[in-house]
Amino acid sequence: MRIDAHQHFWSLANPFTDWPTPDLAAIHRDFGPVDLRPLLDKTGIEGTVLVQAAPAVAETRYLLALAQEYSFVKGVVGWIDFEAADALGQLEGLASNPALKGLRPMIQSIEEPGWILCGEFDPLFRAMIAANLSLDGLVRAHQIGDLVHLAARYPELRIVLDHGGKPDIADGSLIRWATATEALARHPNVHCKLSGLWTEAGADISAEAIRPYAAHLLAVFGVERLMWGSDWPVVELAGSYADWFEQAKLLLADLGEADRVKIFGGNAARFYRLDNG
């Protein structure tokens, strides 16, 4: 099964939808299952992982309801308020729904260095491990080191690096990001999403511009721990769903068919337990 490991839905009318903002005209409208279905049909994608976009438990409940209604949504990555007094209760309440596969604190928006390593979060990570929930690491390149420490602290916690750790492709920054992702990849409990690269690339989203970053991620994470995602509809800030899918296939064209199958579906299905309810 071909799986898109990273996509979003939002409705601007929902009270918890605070992003995208009006200045992002290309994506400042509603995006739902009826918009995505034709794109999946065109590219042969059979299932998706639906990822939170707002820091609200109410949004996660909204996404879980959509997953129940639309069978192509195979799992949901939600959000809880890690700093709330009832954070553990939020986690346990959401985890009772089998469609919840993981959680994603929006680390990229948190300026405090090392925030995710706060000792007070230990019960949450222990509960995630017990509930077999993964962690989506939404970080910018300078925050990857925090995930390295987290992966070492909790070797039983499955972690996936969203959007390849958001390298600054537009500025040609490669070495520091490459060093950080290589360190992260040494931890076998960490996977990585080949997604979100176009929106970090500025005006040049050509295969030539993206190839060094995709090649590095493939080299350090290997074919067993890399998974393709569209980051739709955010990808529409730079290009189309189908064009990113085609470029990703081009970037991975030197792999054998069995390895491409893993990256375009098998790894996501295994990581997110998509066959386990």
Provide a concise account of the structure shown.
The protein has helices spanning 33-43, 57-69, 87-95, 122-130, 144-153, 175-185, 207-221, 241-251, 257-271; strands at residues 3-7, 47-51, 73-78, 100-103, 134-137, 159-161, 190-194, 226-228. The chain has 277 residues and is α/β, with parallel strands linked by helices. It is globular and about 50 Å long.
Report the sheet with the most strands, covering strand number, pairing sense and barrel closure: 8 strands, parallel
In CATH's first tier, which class applies? Alpha Beta
Low-confidence stretches: none
Instruction: Figure out the total of helices.
Output: 9
Q: Nearest-angstrom radius of gyration?
A: 17 Å
Shape: globular
Number of beta strands: 8
CATH topology (fold) name: TIM Barrel
Could you tell me how far the N terminus lies from the C terminus, measured between alpha carbons in angstroms?
16 Å
Average pLDDT reading: 97
Strand order of the largest sheet: 1-2-3-4-5-6-7-8
Q: State which percent range the strand residues make up.
A: 5-15%
What is the succession of H and E elements? EHEHEHEHEHEHEHEHH
How many domain units?
1
Query: What's the architecture in CATH terms?
Result: Alpha-Beta Barrel
SS-based structural class? alpha/beta
How helix-rich are the residues, as a percent range?
25-40%
Q: CATH homologous superfamily, by name?
A: Metal-dependent hydrolases
Describe this entry's structure for a reader:
This protein is an alpha/beta fold and 277 residues long. It has a single domain (3-271), classed as Metal-dependent hydrolases (TIM Barrel), CATH 3.20.20.140. Helices cover 38% and strands 13% of the residues. It has an 8-stranded parallel beta sheet. Helix 3 packs parallel to helix 4 and helix 5 runs parallel beside helix 6. The radius of gyration is 17 Å and the shape is globular.
